[in-house]
Structure formats: C-alpha cells, structure tokens
Write a structure and sequence with these properties.
Layout lengths: L1 H13 L8 H19 L1 H12 L10 H18 L5 H21 L16 E2 L2 E2 L2 H18 L3 E3 L4 H21 L3 H11 L4 E4 L6 E4 H21 L18 H17 L3 H4 L7
Antiparallel strand pairs: 1-2, 3-4, 4-5
Length: about 280
C-alpha cells in the first residue's frame, strides 16, 4: 500500500497534459489534476472523516466513539510516517498543531467559556476534551505539508518571518482574549491583509506553473474547514450551544476564524527547512 501511494505521488508530479491540447482542454486537464492533488493532500483528513462517518455514536464493542476515533487517528498518523508519506520532522510539526489545538479546545470548552461541548463520554477525555480533537487541527497542518510537496509550491514576497510569527501569535492569542477584552479579529485580519498583500503562491496543477494570491489560498482552505465543521457537528461529534436542541448550520463567521487559523498553521509549516528554502522574503 505504501509503495503504491509513493508511485502514485510520483506519477501525479510527473504527468503532463497532451501536447496537442487546446486552451480549453488544457484548462480542463489542469482543473482535473488540481482536484486530484487536492484530494490526495487531504489523505489524513479524508481517512479521519471517513472514520467519523463509519464509527457509530454508541461506539464499537463497548468502546466509546471518542476513544475509537483517537485510536484510529493515531493509527493513521503512524501509518503515514511508516509509509514515508510524512517525515519525522513533518510529524513533529503536526504534533505541535495537535498541542496548540488541544490547548484551545480545553479553554473553549471550559465551564467559564462553553463555546462548544463534547457530549459523549470517553476514557480519553482530558479536562472535558477528547484527545482526538487535537488531530482535527493537526489535519490542517498535514494538508498544507502534503499539498506543498505535491504541487511543488513556492512563495514570493512573503513578509519577514518575525512579522509573520508575531501576527500568527496575536491571532492565536485573540481566540482566548476576545472573551475578556473584545474581539480584535478584524483588526488582525486588516494587518494580515497588509502583510500578505503582495504575497503570491506558485503551484503546479500539471507541468506549467500557475499563481494566485496566498491570502486567497488561506480563505479557500478556511471555507473547506468550515464545511467539514458543519459535517462534524451534524454527526454530533461536538455541539455549539445553538445546536443542542436541533442541528443548525455553523455560523458563517466561523469561516473567518478558520481562515485566520490557517495563517497560523502556515506560519508553523514555513519553519520546516525544505519549505523555507522555497519561500522568498524581500530584503
């Protein structure tokens, strides 16, 4: 299985559009392989959400759903490292996302805040949060790492790393502090817009290099995370206060929160040596 995935990845990165393709046909080929590479980069996400869909709410053989999901998430992560689909350095970065996400979950579900809750019982709950929850944040990091390699991304006009790290830290801090001193999300978003206004990401759907504003990438990824959040709450994985009586769509404002969280995640990924080597920071 691991060898097959590696061969598939090599094929994805070497495939070319037919030389006699018209402009419309080339667009269709690139759009198709853009989607295939995106799907492949979501391997961890896809396997994890497949587990969410397949594991019944009452659990399996007397083991609670949350505990089963933790075990499956660990197995998926171990398999990806064993299969060389992720390196140890990448796994360490993903572990950092897990810790950062879990700390946020503990705060948000605490008795004083109660932004959302995990209703089901589990042995793997710590401070009211099931340990699998951190993997939902780690999945975002895994996606960015995988898509970076598959599409041979490079970035130009990235802001200085200290500025990127500072705004990422303030974004994370605001998730906590807005409960006490006000929500400065849109001020941070405006600063981020200024920092990344000139930043462009180059990518390869096929052999030709394409480009788009990096900020657009952040917003698009944030949108798909918001969709995944709707699926998760519909499945009862966790619930917002307005969903306790009956399920309703997650407020669209969460889209902006996820987009900001993607910026923070990208900033951590950018510290990997092979990623930093393909990031241009103007002097």
């Amino acid at each position: 299985m691991s060898l097959q995935f590696n061969k598939f990845d090599q094929w994805l990165m070497s495939v070319r559009a037919p030389t006699d393709s018209s402009s419309v046909q080339r667009f269709c080929w690139e759009f198709l392989f853009f989607g295939i590479k995106q799907a492949r980069a979501c391997l961890f996400v896809g396997l994890f959400f497949l587990s969410v869909l397949l594991v019944p709410r009452e659990g399996v053989a007397g083991v609670s759903r949350y505990d089963v999901l933790l075990l499956l998430a660990l197995l998926i992560q171990i398999w990806m490292v064993w299969a060389k689909l992720e390196t140890w350095d990448e796994a360490k970065a993903i572990s950092l996302f897990h810790l950062v996400g879990f700390a946020l979950e503990v705060f948000k579900t605490s008795g004083a805040i109660q932004s959302w809750s995990y209703p089901d019982p589990a042995f793997s709950k710590v401070l009211g949060v099931p340990l699998f929850a951190g993997f939902m944040y780690a999945a975002v990091g895994s996606y960015i790492i995988q898509i970076w390699r598959l599409m041979e991304l490079r970035v130009r006009h990235h802001p200085p790393y200290w500025m990127a790290a500072l705004i990422a830290s303030l974004i994370y801090l605001n998730f906590f502090s807005h409960h006490y001193i006000g929500d400065y999300r849109w001020y941070l978003a405006a600063i981020t817009l200024g920092l990344y206004a000139r930043t462009v990401v180059y990518y390869h759907p096929l052999e030709k290099e394409r480009q788009m504003p990096l900020l657009l990438g952040f917003v698009l990824v944030g949108f798909f995370i918001w969709l995944a959040e709707n699926i998760s709450t519909f499945m009862g994985l966790w619930s917002y206060p307005n969903q306790l009586g009956a399920w309703s769509v997650v407020h669209v404002g969460k889209w902006s929160s996820w987009s900001l969280l993607v910026i923070m995640t990208f900033t951590i990924v950018a510290q990997l040596k092979y990623v930093k080597a393909r990031i241009h920071v103007p002097e």
